[in-house]
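Query form — protein Band 7 domain-containing protein

QUESTION: What is the three-dimensional structure of this chain?
INPUT:
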Amino acid sequence: MEKLPKAGILFAIGIVLAIIILFKSSVNIGAGEAGVLFNFFSGVDTSKTYGEGFHIIAPWNDMTEFRVKQQSFSDSMEVLSVNGLKVTVEGTVWFQPEYDNLPRLYKEKGANYVETILDPAINAATRSVVGRYTPEQLYSSKKEIIVSEIMSELTKELKGQYLTVNKVFVKEVKLPPKINDAIERKLRQEQEAQEYEFRLVKAQKEAERQRIDAQGKAAANDILSKSLTDKILMEKGIEATLKLAESPNSKVIVVGSSDNGGLPIILGNQ
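ANSWER: The structure tokens for Band 7 domain-containing protein are given below.
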């Protein structure tokens, strides 16, 4: 009879141990994540990346999970322009670890690779790009150009680091207040000068148009004056006289003498 309680206790202990072992041996990796196995005897297993779902491992081993879907890292940093002035750059980088090389990333760079690898690479790339420009160039340059250059430099910095950069976004480039105000004043003055130049050119073109128009009219009048001979004037005068004679309105018409070519002179019209 005494053996039954002992057997029950041993059975209960066995069940508990089995549950503990099963709990320690089972791993469920979530969506968008992957696992790296750390073997108690040999260290990080670099031969395999464990994907989503349920996995059974030896209880003395350990599984470390990482996000492998695209993620972002935002930062604000002070860098120097080409003439030594401080510039603040705010931006965001979208990246993800290389799935097949995740075990190597963990073994060589550690679990906190964002702080140890990505952040320094972003700083180095940004300093390299911003250091090529003056504050005036940074103010007027299109962000797309800066983004493209940072992306290129960042890709070089992360070569062989088991990380893929998908996109770089520069939110803002802040210049020192005095430099920023001076650049804005200069741009306003340039804009005003361009507007004045535009108005001046427009006025010059209008004056030229009027001059050409006046020359055209003068030339036309000169041609007309030369073409009006005495005979033509006499003919026009006769035509006018005939039209006046046909008009029903009462009037007095005196036909001119030979001094005016016989053109009609209207003395009255009612």
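ADDITIONAL NOTE: The mean pLDDT is 79.
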